[in-house]
Design brief:
Length: about 110
Amino acid sequence: MRRIKAHLMTPIFYLYKIEEVGQIQMNKKMAKKFKDIYDKNTRVEIFESLQWAEENKDFSFESIMEDAPVRGKLKFTNEEVYDYLMNFKKFMENEEYGLLTDDKPTNRPWEK
């Protein structure tokens, strides 16, 4: 469960930067950035955690962030967070972006 929570933190972090869930642009630019930061194995683990979330709609997704290094409480209801996570899952499934298949090296400066 700890691993699932840790991987769900990744997409939930984006919610701290916005006022409305619809503000997040899940597009090629975001996919490229996501692939630059996370290797394929990590992206697959994030996706598997999103699959778990899909099957556990009543889980308190806000509670995931209690141990996260962020200030404040999420501005969104649990239902809004769940809907956002399901949209993020669809984003990751979109073959056009290659988030689950592209095995290119990350673009982390400290790994060069």
